[in-house]
Write a structure and sequence with these properties.
Streptococcus thermophilus LMG 18311 protein like, four-stranded antiparallel sheet, globular
Length: 117
């Protein structure tokens, strides 16, 4: 994941205060505009061996194109990030319009052959 200080123009300082911190290179709250009058809330963290983005909109789930924009904004172009669809017993949903991006620090994410994608 990029150093979060590189994304300072998107920082949501008011959200960070409500969450009890000011944000740093390992975490923070962001507002990402995706269309006129539309923005996504992004909570970013890096720790425990993982980079994680929680991406939401109060009215609907983010679209594929919006998730791709967030991925390109927060991760370097060579980094692979993924959405996970875990088993039912491991599924926790706190916000109905929230999707997540994950990237492990010490393991390369396996990819299918390029012609499959």
């Amino acid at each position: 994941m990029k150093r979060l200080r590189e994304l300072k123009e998107y920082r949501a300082r008011d959200w960070e205060k409500r969450m009890g911190g000011k944000g740093d290179d390992t975490g923070g709250c962001f507002r990402v505009p995706v269309a006129p009058g539309v923005e996504l809330a992004v909570i970013a963290s890096s720790g425990g061996g993982w980079d994680h983005l929680s991406v939401s909109n109060p009215h609907r789930c983010p679209t594929w194109a919006e998730m791709e924009r967030v991925k390109r904004l927060f991760f370097h172009s060579h980094e692979v990030a993924m959405q996970l669809h875990v088993g039912t017993s491991d599924h926790i949903s706190i916000h109905p319009n929230c999707l997540h991006l994950w990237r492990p620090h010490d393991v390369e994410i396996p990819l299918p052959p390029k012609e499959f994608v």
